[in-house]
């Protein structure tokens, strides 16, 4: 594959990208929402928000593609960044730059691509892109839609939405440490990271802000694996994680705590508001069956939750109490939340 060129401002571009502090961070609903819309409007199976570093292309939001990182020299988005303009490939198999690319000759067998630069402070840091496994062109209207959606990504860059504790953890961590803090399958925080975030949120709660901790477990998950296979079980975990992200606020912390168990930290959440917010999570996950390669599965979850207070002053107290409540929810019939 012919490599994209870089310009004289590459150093400043990379500094701007590093300052954005989004490389190797968990998936966020505010970006996933945009890639879902892009895929639907342009009628393609794949849509991504990518960030192009000195050596890698990191996928911040992923609709329809399994991998979340690629080397820069095999990335279509690197060409979008290098051109700093809308970049279209009609048939990658017939394009000398991409004909031997592993994403073309192997899964997902990309043939067509359209990428729109996403910029920060005047520098192109990545792309909002769509791709298809069939050759196709993109109309001016479709490319205008892509440009408008890329502007929404840029607006999210400017806003910044992660809560205080998550933003602090990211700022204090190297890119390698961040990567080690994310669950590879669900793109949520992993257990060690969510434990660290719990300690930080607990410190905030001791200073006067409310905190509710919820343990959320997929009901009868073993039956999913037994009936549909472990690949389908992974797909269920990914979809449940996505629904969980969409059901909480962007400032809340969510992590994968065990095999099919998740932990949510609802910051600034007083006890009076906790029931409604946790129930919303349970209902959102069970609202619709999850489509699988060999059928669909109706999935429910049970949740146990507890709010910080004198009766639960430590992280251990909170987790143990939430675990007891989760057990009670399971015993009471599942698909429910219990305090």
How does this structure look, described?
A 6-stranded antiparallel β-sheet has the order 3-2-1-6-5-4, sandwiched between helices. It has 339 residues and is an alpha+beta fold. The protein is built from 12 helices and 13 strands. Strand 8 and strand 9 form a beta hairpin. The protein has 2 domains: 10-161, GAF domain (Beta-Lactamase), CATH 3.30.450.40; 165-338, Reverse transcriptase/Diguanylate cyclase domain (Alpha-Beta Plaits). The mean pLDDT is 93. The relative contact order is 0.11. Helix 2 packs antiparallel against helix 5 (140-159), helix 9 packs across helix 10 (230-247) and helix 10 packs antiparallel against helix 11. It starts with 9 loop residues before the first helix and ends with a strand.
How is the secondary structure organized here?
Blueprint (H helix, E strand, L loop, with lengths): L9 H11 L8 H14 L3 E7 L3 E8 L5 E3 L4 H8 L3 E3 L12 H4 L6 E9 L2 E10 L7 H20 L4 H9 L2 H5 L11 H16 L4 E8 L2 H8 L1 H18 L5 E4 L4 E7 L3 H16 L3 E3 L2 E3 L3 E7 L7 H17 L5 E2 L1
Parallel strand pairs: 12-13
Antiparallel strand pairs: 1-2, 1-6, 2-3, 4-5, 5-6, 7-9, 7-12, 8-9, 10-11
Helix pairs in contact: 2-5, 9-10, 10-11
